[in-house]
Prior knowledge:
Elements: E1 5-21, E2 24-38, E3 41-47, H1 60-75, H2 83-90, H3 97-114, H4 119-123, E4 129-131, E5 134-136, H5 142-155, E6 160-163, H6 170-179, E7 185-188, H7 198-204, E8 212-213, H8 222-228, E9 235-237, H9 244-252, E10 258-261, H10 269-281, E11 286-288, H11 295-304, H12 319-322, E12 328-329, E13 339-341, E14 351-352, H13 354-360, E15 361-367
Parallel strand pairs: 5-6, 6-7, 7-8, 8-9, 9-10, 10-11
Antiparallel strand pairs: 1-2, 1-15, 2-3, 4-13, 12-14
2-succinylbenzoate binds near residues 190 and 289.
Amino acid sequence: MRIERIELRTIRMDLVHRFETSFGAESTRHAVIVRVDAGGLTGYGECVAGLGPWYSYETVGTSLHVLREYLAPRLIGQDVDSPEQVGDRFAPIRGHPMAKAALEFAVWDLLARAAGTPLARFLGGERDRVDSGVSIGIQPSLDALLERIDGFLGQGYRRVKLKIKPGWDVRVVAAVRERFPDVPLMVDANSAYRLDDLDVFRQLDDFDLLMIEQPLGHDDIYEHSKLQARLRTRLCLDESIHTAADARFALEIGSCGVINIKPGRVGGLVEARAIHDVCRARGIPVWCGGMLETGIGRAHNVALASLPNFRLPGDLSASDRYYARDVIDPPFALNPDGTLSVPSGPGIGVSVDEELLDRLTLSHETIPPPRAP
Ligand code: OSB
Ligand code: MG
């Protein structure tokens, strides 16, 4: 298919709950939404970069720049018949995986629609429902946290992930465990600790956690292997895994027992699937992480999570856990069994509410630029 038009727009959406991690807090989310048009069909993708370089070096600003100046020009007017060709075209550009992924997602949606196939099947996915977990930010008080957890469990979520940081860790996990002895529970530190903090992890080791996510450096693999050797609880890597080669290295040296795959973090669905395959071959389970995506990014994540080695509940919550009104129709809803259904229509399988997108839009541009009348 010849790519005729690429649209980049920045939107802003209010979160239902303020989301605080060890690296900062946000009450609104900004996202770059990419739309690709070819042969009368449309594909959508979402960029997961944050407003500032806190989770990774990419930001809304850098991703727009790289999309506009370097990525879109390599696809516009080109014939693209497979998602792998997108990666080939982007290969000369170093880094910027979130910007690359946003455009790659849109092409996946487009090509799956052209094939009349749901994206999940197009990727090789098998499940028609994915287990839904919830990631809960740092709260103003322990009582507020317990109440929030109680509410989510009442809705049916299958797993709870707590954000931790120094000063909001062992005491908090102990209280949550006491109140909810059987809930599948895990913690995510977003790189807030060092190897010297071994004592904290020794204590966390006693709470029967599913895993401890990214305790050490955001770009570290080596020190995680040192920590993992001293704990019973599995470590899970998020920030420091960007490629299938990173995953192979981490598993080879024993840095973790689980990997959180976020397709936006690793440059798109081709690399995400390759990481899935590396882990599967070694008997290591994976799960799908999230970046507070709108329904567009969520649809790509849900499709990915339908692959067979996604054996643990993901940070794939219903639309209403994030936004009062999602940009897709229908929004993702939590089934009574604590799952999200994998859409069965072609492509991402949900329609995008362009009118709502327009109302949320802060900036908008098209490649090529519209011709003067
Ligand atoms: O580390 O997994 C993370 C959100 C923003 C940045 C980093 C992370 C997260 C989450 C949210 O944990 C997961 C979600 O989208 O529900
Ligand atoms: Mg994480």
